[in-house]
Structures are given as structure tokens and as C-alpha cells.
Amino acid sequence: MTVKRLNKEDRLRKLNARIPVSLIREEEALEKKLRKPKLSPLNGLEMIYGVLDLHMQYTKGLTACSKGCDFCCHMEVAVSRLEADFIAAKTGYKPSVNGPSLALSNSKQYCDEKKPCPFLDQIGKICSIYVYRPMMCRTHLSFEESNTPCRFDAPKDSPITLLDRAKSWPSALRGYFLLIERHGGGWADIRDYFGKWAS
Ligand code: SF4
Q: What is the pLDDT of residues 165-174, one digit of tens each?
């Protein structure tokens, strides 16, 4: 019997089909909680990360991402003030107050082998703040068959099919933007906030 190999669009579809209704309901209930004005944005963000961790189990076998692949840690990593404050609260690293500088809609993504994220452990090629990493890192998932396009020597225009956050995890994403707005926005590249771990 021939086993049909899934292409990247099939893999994305398969992810959406795998997500159980119970988790979709949980995500919707979370969005309602996040809308309560008394909820601390930092606590809300932690709740979102908890639900996303549950989602992650359904990506198993569908993405090209794996431990030790650090390509996307050399890209621009857009972080809000809320996420910077969350990392600070959990790790003790203090973000630069001059961080906010990124106009998200106008930003041109870059990838520079010489400009890794300050939290990348370059020896082990792992994230040193993995549990507290920002949304951009949690949801930057490649649905390519392998990580070949995510190599510094890959052709610059290699298309990479990424998770469609709004399609797969819509309520979590809406809640995330809501909290960020409530916390004052403040987008910057992670290097602007935590270059050499700032202080
Ligand atoms: S926070 Fe962690 S996962 Fe995100 S870019 Fe930095 S090292 Fe990579």
C-alpha cells in the first residue's frame, strides 16, 4: 500500500482538524476571562501561554521545527511591552526603557546570522528563557517538510509556510492583542528590550 505524503497545506489543515472541540471551548472561555478589566495583563498572558502549550501537542509530526534549530532566533522578534515585562518578572532581566521602536505594520523582517536573539544559548542552540519566550517564538512554526529552507545558506526567497495564528488559535490571539493594548502596546525587537540583557 502506498502511503500518501502530506504536503504543507495538508499539514496545516491536519493541525486544524486535530484541535479538539473541548480545547476550542477552553480557548473561547479564556478570551472571555481576558476581557474582564480587573484581570492583570501579566496573569492573563500566562493563561494564554498555558492554553498555547496545550495546543502545541497537536502540532506533533506536522512541523519542521525541532530543538537545536535556531534560524528564527536570528530573525526580527517582535515583542510587546507586556511580554518584555513578563520576561522581566519571571527572570529578573530588566528591559530597556528605550525599547519601543518597532512599527509592526511597517517593519521589514530580517534574518542576520550575526544578530542572534540575546537569549539564544549559542553553544547548545537553545532558548535560555524557553518557558517565558514571547508569543512570536511560541507560534513561529514551519509547516515545511524539513528545515532545509530555514538555513542560512538557503536561497533568500525560499518560501516557508508558517502557522496561520488567526486560523488555528483565533481566540487566544484576540485575547493576546487585547491584553497588549491594555498594557500600553510598546512593540520593539527583542534585542532593543534585552540587548545584553539590558538593565
Ligand atoms: S526568546 Fe528564545 S525562542 Fe525566542 S528568539 Fe530568543 S532565543 Fe529564540
A: 998 999 999 9
Nearest to 63 by CA among 156, 158, 147, 135: 147
The set of cell numbers assigned to 53 is: 502549550
Alpha carbon separation from 122 to 26, 59, 64, 75, 173 (Å, rounded):
37, 26, 20, 15, 30
In ligand 1, which atom is closest to the CA atom of 130? 2
Pocket test residue of 137, 138, 139, 142 for ligand 1, highest count of atoms within 8 A of CB: 137
Does the pTM surpass 0.70? The reply is yes
How far is it, in rounded angstroms, from Cα 116 to Cα 138?
17
Q: Which ligand 1 atom lies nearest to the CA of residue 77?
A: 5
